[in-house]
């Protein structure tokens, strides 16, 4: 028993010392994320609107179009797009905290893509610095609650244990990323290599306002186009049902609201246009009514027509311009 306690004390001490030393270490370089945060920081408080979410924000909310439409309505803004490909909760909450910590003046509002928590690590992120950088204690705690305590169904002891054992391997993967992040494992070699060589990955073209145009190509042709049109027709017949999801995703959404309101801003929730059978919405009818929901092709046919689509899940440049202006119209109604 004493040997076990000594091992535990050693591990805890190691993590504590590493966590203190990590505050003296430069932040990890994360492709796209680091570049966007740097550009946002360098502009000081010039921006008064922030948009955050996945590629459906990054490629689909165009700051210049948004600001021009707001100016035409007599409410001038300057918008920064903090969308990142594949970014979902709780990573987006971490990035949002980092961005708002750079502010000295209050924002007007923050446009938040309305998503529930994604527990699985994307294949393209597994083992990368992108998977490590956001795994702090707060995010690990959120993931633990999601993994082990989000299921409110009444289950027997055996069934409960089986479910928890099923999700444990993925939670253990998250724990590994947290340990690597908090202890700064491998940072010595990383920082030395950065001094001796240019180890940063080539960046995609990112505008000064954080926006990047979607590709000119389209993936909607042949069978993909036929499948997409079938999916949209299904949505016309049966619009996506509202899903309030489990309580941990709701708590994460409420945490975003608290962070944003502490920054003196208003949170604007947006459901992007793409084929789905259910859409995540905040808990409570009042909160749901305030969401800008573009998930219904009957209400927004222009966002679902193939000539305005890049692929099944994303609009092209023309569709993104329409989508951005529709968001402005929705915000003006709320304001």
How many distinct folded domains?
Answer: 1
The 3D shape can be described as: globular
- Biggest sheet features: 5 strands, parallel
Report low-confidence residues grouped into runs of 5 or more.
4-15
Estimate what percentage of residues fall within beta strands: 5-15%
Order of helices and strands: HHEHHEHEHHHHHEHEEHEEEH
Query: Which strand order does the major sheet show?
Result: 2-1-3-5-7
The quaternary structure here is single chain
Which terms would index this structure?
two-stranded parallel ribbon; Rossmann fold; five-stranded parallel sheet; single chain; alpha/beta; 49% helix; 335 residues
List the helices and strands and how they pair.
Elements: H1 2-22, H2 33-42, E1 49-52, H3 55-58, H4 63-72, E2 79-81, H5 91-100, E3 109-113, H6 129-133, H7 137-149, H8 157-183, H9 187-196, H10 222-237, E4 241-243, H11 247-262, E5 266-271, E6 278-280, H12 285-289, E7 292-293, E8 309-311, E9 314-315, H13 317-334
Parallel strand pairs: 1-2, 1-3, 3-5, 4-6, 5-7
Antiparallel strand pairs: 8-9
Helix pairs in contact: 4-13, 5-11, 7-8, 7-11
Describe this structure in words.
The protein has about 325 residues and is an alpha/beta fold. It has one domain (about 1-120, about 205-335): SGNH hydrolase (Rossmann fold, 3-Layer(aba) Sandwich). Helix content is about 50%, strand content about 10%. The strands form 3 sheets. The protein has a 5-stranded parallel beta sheet with strand order 2-1-3-5-7. It has a two-stranded parallel ribbon with strand order 4-6. A two-stranded antiparallel sheet has the order 8-9.
